[in-house]
Amino acid sequence: MKAIRISAFSNSLDNLKVEDIPDPPIVQGGAKVRVLAASVNPSDVKNVQGKMEGTTLPRIPGRDFAGIVVDGPSNLVGTEVWGTGGDVGFTRDGSHAEFLTIPVEAASPKPHNLTFEQAACVGVNFATAYLGLIRCAKLQVDETLLVTGARGGVGSAVLQLGQTLNARLIAVDRKPFEPEAFEGVKLFGYVDTSQVKLGEAVRQITNETGVDVVFDCVGGELFEPVLSTLRQLGRHIAITSVGMRRVSFDLLDFYHRRLTLFGVDSRALTVTDCAGLLDSVSPLFKAGRLRPSRISKRGTLRDAYELYSFVANGGDGKAVFIAPRAD
Description:
It is a single chain. The chain is of the alpha/beta class. It folds into two domains: 2-122 and 292-322, Alpha-Beta Complex (Quinone Oxidoreductase, Chain A, domain 1); 125-266, Rossmann fold. It is 25% helix and 24% strand. The protein has helices at 42-48, 116-119, 123-136, 153-164, 198-205, 223-227, 251-256, 271-286, 304-312; strands at residues 2-4, 18-20, 30-40, 65-71, 80-83, 99-103, 108-109, 144-148, 168-173, 189-192, 211-216, 230-238, 260-263, 295-299, 318-322. The strands form three sheets. Strands 3, 4, 5, 6, 7, 14 and 15 form a seven-stranded mixed β-sheet that branches. The protein has a six-stranded parallel β-sheet with strand order 10-9-8-11-12-13, with helices on both faces. It starts with a strand and ends in a 5-residue tail after the last strand.
């Protein structure tokens, strides 16, 4: 099969070479998937640059995928599946190849109304969003939810999930408001942190009451201002820290308000773990209540440098490898 396989890390991305290698072998309890679409995530870029911990070489990168089971248990052969995982592309070969193998427990059926390329844009973003917002923070109907980095992949997924629970949505980003960036999402408020102070803006939007849940896709210097927006019994989900790793806050204020801080790391989730999360959001995609991220760039494996560079340079929308379907 053809695959992108890295044997050394490189900041320049010149290690993205297409190789002809043997198809992955099927082991007991496994299934072989023909990859028909696979997106490129920022973590995939960091992985080939050597900025992610735990990656073993040589390795085929790529976390998110959609395709068809072509070998394995007879009841699974022919099943259209989608998936992602914190192990996929890091400690087991990933999706930027013609085939990959997964445990049979990870064979999550793809929603029938999504194309393969749409389904390949769901994995990391919605698995992270669902784990943090629903499993950890347990967002309740009609609560107020603030999302930083709201225009990004995870941020936009969180806003959509919040909307399914009728949450009052406050989007935070460092760009002026653009309606097309939040198509289909009804916002209660928007904060452009390049123009106004976050805490003051949120107090005005919420009439001084604050928010119930923060999903923080930025961290760093925004961590303490975001924490200050929470009302009593508020919950703060942190998934990264941009710029600075160490933060500080008023611990007395933290416990007096009885706040909860959740650390959510999608890398800790295996492809089997993520199958359960995707099964949870699948009905919402089937009902049209959730939408996959917009695709901006498509290509084949031979376009790897172009697609990876698009993501590395902060391109708006998803970059996706597309493979012809073999019928």
